[in-house]
Design a protein that fits this description.
Its EC number is 4.3.1.3. One of its GO terms (cellular component) is cytoplasm. It comes from Edaphosphingomonas laterariae. It holds the Pfam family Lyase_aromatic. The protein is mainly α. The protein has 2 domains: 3-196, Orthogonal Bundle (Fumarase C, Chain B, domain 1), CATH 1.10.275; 204-311 and 324-501, Fumarase C, Chain A, domain 2. It is built from 20 helices and 9 strands. The strands form 4 sheets. Strands 4-6-7 form a 3-stranded antiparallel sheet. A two-stranded parallel ribbon has the order 1-2. A hairpin with a 4-residue loop joins strand 8 (315-317) and strand 9. The longest helix is centred in the middle third of the chain and has 31 residues, at 198-228.
């Protein structure tokens, strides 16, 4: 396994994508001096004997309570244990590992006051495949992702559970088998571990990466649907999109033209086509999917910035031995990014479902009703379209902006929160729904093109059809439909369809 080496503030989206997909991560050696200086600053601050929030005081509404030196280790352990109050299913291992790497990247700046051995524990857990079991519900996305990050920190001190090679084992046992001793937390370290936006950011990044795959897949299935309906490629003419000037729209128009280039199906109706204009679901693909691309790029920029920053509190400035309390833990930027990704995923599925509906309607597509050679005796794609419609409606409900909500917490000390955590966490379910819609479109579009035999589409789109037909034969008479959808969804999940649209201008 290759390894991503994280420098302070320099990780790219490609780095985070690789970590999400299983690449290990550790800090670059260049970060060691800043981390050590930050830990040394904590000792000097403590030596002054004055109350400093998060170091020798209580937390939140209890910040006015000064803690004596002999109780500082207990204070940090207590905050981890008391805040590990999450509920719900565990976050998926790939996202949990991404969260741990994001926490490492935050510590790389030397502004959190953690010791080198604490950083080394996180690195060792990643390297040895020890992933804390982190209940996914319980954060409101402000004052940091306190509950989920506390479960991560608890595993580091030997409390709770970890996933190891697919098995769930007690954290203390997992550490011992890996040759690691449970961490004893130093001053501020418990707070530094559980304060920050890494849970929300990890989930949002995972949603972004899945949305990118869906986006590229939808370009292929959309082009294939256009071919099945013998739609025009004139709406993809570069001159149209240059006049509107949106970068995403221009890129998508170029991509769709490239995907359809050389198609014999398209060439067969360049002359004498009675249809003057195609439905919007075909004609407006550059406008809709281009806007989706612009949105994903903006969300990616926000998340890349967040992932490279520091979001715990208070922040330690070793050059002046100051601990400054602020609000970097407030995850509003992540919440907005997650909402943008949710809208993008929703629209990818929405326009794809309209293409499915168009294909099964003979009045619009010119194809046999419900894409079956013997309609009436066979129902063909009648109910798969209904399934697609159901999935799109679920995503519409989930796409409501999380960031416009807020609820006061911690005795009104934390009186405005971002809701970034569940705004980001919903993206996985939305992506799964959209994947189902695109799987159905993939099947329907390939079936529609089958009716045009012996004419073939472009080389790229024929590759897409061949990929599917290796798993799913053409639908003649009705058969058990679910396995066909599952097979198409597996190809999409594996990125094999998206890879066909890995084109210039398309991230």
């Amino acid at each position: 396994m290759t390894e991503i080496t994280l420098k302070a503030g320099e990780a790219t989206l490609a780095d985070w994508r690789a970590i999400y997909l299983g690449t290990n991560a550790r800090l670059d050696a260049s970060t060691a001096l800043a981390i050590a200086a930050s830990a040394a600053a904590i000792e000097r601050i403590l030596a002054r004997g004055k109350p400093v929030y998060g170091i020798n005081t209580g937390f939140g509404k209890l910040a006015s309570v000064k803690i004596e030196a002999e109780d500082l280790a207990t204070l940090q352990r207590n905050i981890v244990l008391s805040h590990a109050a999450g509920v719900g299913d565990p976050m998926p291992v790939p996202i949990a590992r991404l969260m741990m790497a994001l926490k490492l990247a935050s510590f790389a700046h030397g502004a959190s006051g953690v010791r080198p051995e604490t950083v080394a524990m996180l690195e060792a857990m990643l390297a040895k495949g020890l992933t804390p079991v982190v209940p996914a519900q319980g954060s409101v996305g402000a004052s940091g992702d306190l509950a989920p990050l506390s479960h991560m920190a608890a595993a580091m001190i030997g409390v709770g559970d970890m996933f190891v090679a697919g098995d769930r084992v007690p954290a203390a046992e997992a550490l011992a088998k890996a040759g690691l001793a449970p961490l004893t937390l130093g001053p501020k370290e418990g707070l530094a571990l559980l304060n920050g936006t890494q849970f929300s950011t990890a989930n949002a990044l995972a949603g972004l990466f899945e949305a990118e795959k869906l986006f590229r897949t939808a370009l292929v299935t959309g082009a294939l649907s256009t071919e099945a309906a013998k739609g025009s490629d004139a709406p993809f003419d570069a001159r149209i999109h240059q006049l509107r000037r949106h970068a995403g729209q221009i890129a998508v128009g170029d991509a769709l033209r490239g995907l359809m280039a050389g198609s014999a199906i398209r060439a067969s109706h360049l002359e004498g086509d009675a249809r003057v204009q195609d439905p919007y679901c075909l004609r407006c693909q550059p406008q809709v999917m281009g806007a989706v691309l612009d949105l994903l790029r903006q969300a990616g920029h926000t998340l890349a910035t967040e992932a490279n920053g520091v979001s715990d509190n208070p922040l330690i400035f070793a050059d002046t031995d100051e601990a400054l309390s602020g609000g970097n833990f407030h995850a509003e930027p992540v919440a907005f990014a997650a909402d943008m990704i949710a809208m993008a995923i929703c629209e990818i599925g929405s326009i794809a479902e309209r293409r499915i509906a168009m294909l099964v309607d003979p009045a619009l597509s010119g194809l046999p009703a419900f894409l079956t050679p013997l309609p009436g005796l066979n129902s063909g794609f009648m109910i798969p379209q209904v399934t697609a419609a159901a999935l799109v409606s679920e995503n519409k409900q989930r796409a409501y902006p999380a960031s416009v909500d807020s609820i006061p917490t911690s005795a009104n000390q934390e009186d405005h929160v971002s809701m970034a955590a569940h705004g980001a966490r919903r993206l996985a379910a939305m992506a799964e729904n959209a994947r189902g819609v695109l799987a159905i479109e993939y099947l329907a579009a390939a079936q529609g093109c089958d009716f045009h035999a012996p004419l073939q589409s472009s080389d790229v789109l024929e590759s897409a059809r061949a990929l599917l037909r290796a798993k799913v034969p053409t639908l003649g008479e009705d058969r058990h439909f679910h396995p066909d959808i599952a097979a198409a969804a597996d190809l999409i999940s594996a990125g094999q369809v998206a890879a066909l649209a890995d084109l210039p201008g398309i991230a």
